[in-house]
Design goal:
The protein is an alpha+beta fold. It is built from four helices and eight strands. The chain has helices spanning 3-44, 50-60, 113-117, 122-132, and strands at residues 63-71, 74-81, 86-92, 98-105, 136-143, 153-159, 165-171, 177-183. It has an eight-stranded antiparallel β-sheet. The longest helix is centred in the first third of the chain and has 42 residues, at 3-44. The radius of gyration is 28 Å and the shape is flat. The relative contact order is 0.10.
Length: 191
């Protein structure tokens, strides 16, 4: 019967001696798993562009894209519901995952009638703007204010490969360029 305390003591010594080895092995395995997860994430992550963000937002909240802009790695896309009486801000991550941030209901459907009736939607406007000015779309806004005598149009901001930004206006009926302004990195107007 005196054997039990000796067995307990021997087991305690073995566990105490193996503890640091087990902890080191566990820490090493955890570090390896973290490196592997980071490597997998880095190689499988595809940054969503403006067109992908618009498509993901419409899948989450069907309707009409009113505007979108990039804020770091996420896109903020404002979508007007199909009936024009509601709108929602949809956040789209760099991986293309979309979630609704907020939703407004009970709006006046007349407020969005020109957007809903536009022959050229957001996707076509971005495509037309990129054809006129190669680069990456950074923002898109619906403009029905008829500024400067220009009818309903999309304002698309494009960043070129050299870092310059250019605002391209796309007519909402014809899909043709109606306005184009370029700004250099200093914020100056180049015409």
């Amino acid at each position: 019967m005196k054997r039990t305390p000796y067995v307990r003591a021997a087991v305690s010594v073995v566990l105490l001696a193996a503890g640091p080895v087990a902890a080191a092995t566990s820490a090493s395995a955890s570090a390896h798993a973290a490196r592997t997860a980071t490597a997998v994430t880095a190689t499988t992550r595809a940054d969503t562009d403006a067109q992908g963000a618009a498509a993901a937002a419409l899948k989450k909240y069907p309707g009409y894209v009113e505007s979108l802009d990039q804020d770091g790695a996420v896109w903020h896309v404002n979508v007007v519901g199909k009936n024009g009486k509601s709108s929602s801000e949809v956040i789209v991550s760099s991986s293309g995952a979309a979630s609704r941030a907020n939703q407004d209901t009970g709006q006046d459907a007349g407020e969005y009638k020109t957007l809903i009736a536009a022959k050229v939607g957001a996707a076509k406007a971005m495509k037309a703007a990129l054809a006129a000015q190669p680069g990456k779309v950074r923002s898109l806004d619906w403009d029905d204010e008829n500024d400067n005598g220009v009818a309903d149009h999309w304002s698309v901001q494009i960043k070129s490969a050299n870092g310059d930004t250019r605002d391209v206006g796309i007519d909402a009926t014809t899909g043709k360029v109606v306005l184009a302004d370029s700004d250099d990195d200093d914020g100056g107007d180049n015409g």
